[in-house]
Design brief:
Structural class: alpha+beta
Distance between the termini: 81 Å
CATH topology of the largest domain: FAD/NAD(P)-binding domain
CATH class of the largest domain: Alpha Beta
Number of helices: 15
Radius of gyration: 26 Å
Helix content: 25-40%
Shape: globular
Number of strands: 30
Number of domains: 3
CATH superfamily of the largest domain: FAD/NAD(P)-binding domain
């Protein structure tokens, strides 16, 4: 009897295993991305990188991968996706899934909000392999996060972000983070501020890890966003990393990105980690001990340990996770005596922009047929028109900006998508003019350029009076002369356009005390997350100035290592050393290690 019970137990156990066999496929890990792109901007709000069909109105090439299953048989499957214009009957971002070259009947991308949609069943054959393809139907920003397969039809994936993150790791079999190696300085953020910090520290002999969540360096100056650099090129490193003054959105950013990559990667003391996103920090007391990251394509996790860290994320993630004081939005006029601040503080920030442009192709213009306006060459986009209305432009400049009254971190996907609708609706209007028959969309960014979110508080907070009255700070190692430039909604019927209020100033200094956290003993800041008020950020938020910040903290990190001291101690005891060394690279003189 005991033997019979044991055999029955084994049978039932095997049956349970068979029913719960499952596979999670993250689309960003597909073997071939085709024309789809990996979009990792919105992990804080939706939980994961995903594949985006960014075809500017032309369906993109299929993404493909082959998956090995634990056993053959029929699997239920769920698809995590969304309709990015849910308020309209038309759905712009639809796609199909192809299994082993057979197209599944259901259309995806039609559900409101990021959801797991249980679609049906698929059969896995004797080889235990299944080829999966994502087939874009429209070229209008279809998106797919993941596909989950299970033999249990009730094995519904979790919905809450924290639970889903844990579940993903378990399903993917992701081990604990591996050590990335030994470093003197970890710089998180590969924009120009982070690059400046990494290069300055490396040239002073520090071993540097430069972590960037995008495939290329440069941040807003990169070929993914294409903003030209502005501000004072105060140090030679800033000059090396600066761009030409090409029009925003211009292809000149491609060569600029190559130059930035070349300058950074020429430094033997810098290890660059692209497609690597930080997700948490660990502390002992008031010091960060390490930052944990994951690769946005493979999900492999890595731990970065060092005595010193630089938050150059723009959004202030490292300081935020470490518990440093941060500010967002606008201070009240009375808090710092700022005439440009509102009477009452609020959450408004400067917004996010998507740059784009078009090109005239050299072909004979088609004859205009008033009965068929599409003879000039573009399809109707009714889902975009309530945003674009009757606006017409042939390129998008900085003032194509949205999200000032929203949260530029957690609402970032909605902000980006709103501008997409403005662009596509605008383009339909442009193409109704027969004179524009030969115009074609050339390029549209899908990575947003940000201006403002969190600011990490240091021992000093830069404010309007510091920029206007120009105190001669003894630690004023960053200098700028660019006007205070604060953006506001333009008002009127085009909510995707802004205006700027400029306040002319003379050259002023930014104290080094704005570049390290007052709460975390080994954390520097460089970039737009430095210690400032909303008004104080208005002038120095441009890239030459933030690169200066990076250079200063890179040199300060070297002083910290030499003297086994904190960033605050550099201010207290080593300003003369900092001034002497920075004066050399300010003048263009070679610094000798």
């Amino acid at each position: 009897m005991k033997n019979i019970c044991a055999i029955l137990f084994i049978f039932v156990s095997n049956l349970v295993v068979a029913q719960t066999a499952s596979v999670l496929v993250e689309t960003e890990s597909f073997d071939e991305k085709g024309g789809w792109v990996v979009d990792q901007q919105f992990i804080p709000s939706m939980g994961s990188p995903y594949l985006l069909a960014h075809g500017m109105g032309e369906p993109v090439e299929n993404a493909k991968t082959t998956v090995t299953f634990p056993e053959r048989g029929r699997y239920w499957f769920w698809v995590r996706t969304k309709d990015w214009v849910p308020s309209r009957p038309e759905t712009p971002g639809t796609f199909k899934i192809i299994f082993d070259e057979k197209e599944y009947a259901e259309t995806f991308g039609v559900n409101e909000g990021w959801q797991w949609i249980r679609a049906g069943k698929v059969r896995v054959g004797r080889s235990n392999l299944l080829q999966i393809e994502l087939k874009d139907e429209t070229g209008f920003e279809g998106r797919c996060d993941a596909i989950y397969f299970s033999k249990d039809k009730d094995d519904f994936p979790p919905v809450e972000l924290e639970e889903m993150t844990t579940w993903r790791k378990e399903k993917l079999g992701i081990p604990p983070p591996e050590s990335a190696g030994d470093f003197d300085l970890v710089v998180v953020g590969g924009g120009l501020a982070g690059c400046g910090a990494a290069v300055a520290a490396a040239r002073h002999g520090l071993k540097v890890a430069l972590i960037n969540d995008r495939p290329v360096l440069g941040g807003n100056a990169s070929k993914e966003i294409r903003v030209h650099t502005e501000g004072l090129e105060f140090y030679t490193i800033v000059q090396e990393l600066s761009t030409q003054h090409y029009p925003n959105g211009d292809a000149g950013a491609i060569a600029a990105t190559d130059t930035i990559e070349m300058v950074v990667r020429a430094e033997k003391n810098i290890s660059v980690f692209p497609n690597t996103r930080a997700y948490t920090v660990h502390k002992e007391g008031n010091k960060i001990t390490c930052v944990d990251c994951f690769n946005t394509h493979t999900h492999k996790e890595t731990r970065f340990e060092a005595p010193l860290f630089v938050d150059a994320t723009g959004d202030g993630w490292i300081g935020y996770w470490a518990g440093a004081e941060v500010r967002t939005g606008r201070e009240s006029r009375d808090e710092f005596g700022e005439s440009l601040a509102p009477e009452k503080g609020d959450g408004m920030t400067m917004g996010n922009s998507i740059l784009w442009n078009s090109v005239e192709i050299e072909t004979e213009k088609p004859k205009f047929n008033p009965e068929n306006k599409l003879s000039v060459g573009w399809q109707e986009v009714p889902w975009a028109m309530e945003v674009a209305k009757d606006y017409k432009a042939t390129r998008g400049e900085w003032f194509w900006e949205y999200g000032l009254l929203m949260n530029t971190i957690y609402d970032a996907e909605e902000i980006r998508d709103h501008i997409f609708r403005a662009i596509y609706g605008n383009w339909y209007n442009v193409k109704q003019d027969p004179e524009n028959a030969n115009l074609r969309l050339k390029w549209i960014a899908y990575v947003a350029g940000k201006r403002e979110s969190r600011r990490i508080m240091g021992d000093y907070i830069l404010k309007e009076s510091d920029v206007v009255n120009r105190p001669d700070f003894e630690d004023g190692f960053v200098e700028e002369v660019r006007a205070i430039d604060i953006h506001y909604p333009r008002g009127g019927k085009y909510d995707f356009l802004t205006e700027a209020q400029f306040t002319k100033i003379e050259q002023y200094k930014i104290p080094y005390r704005c570049l390290y956290s007052k709460d975390i003993d080994n954390l520097f800041m460089a970039g737009r997350c430095f210690s400032a008020t909303h008004v104080g950020l208005g002038s120095p938020r441009v890239m030459h100035t933030t690169t200066q910040m990076g250079v200063v903290v890179g040199y300060a990190a070297a002083v910290c290592k030499e003297n086994n001291c904190s960033p605050r101690d550099v201010y207290k005891y080593h300003l003369d050393t900092m001034r002497e060394r920075l004066d050399k690279i300010k003048s263009g003189a070679e610094f000798e290690h």
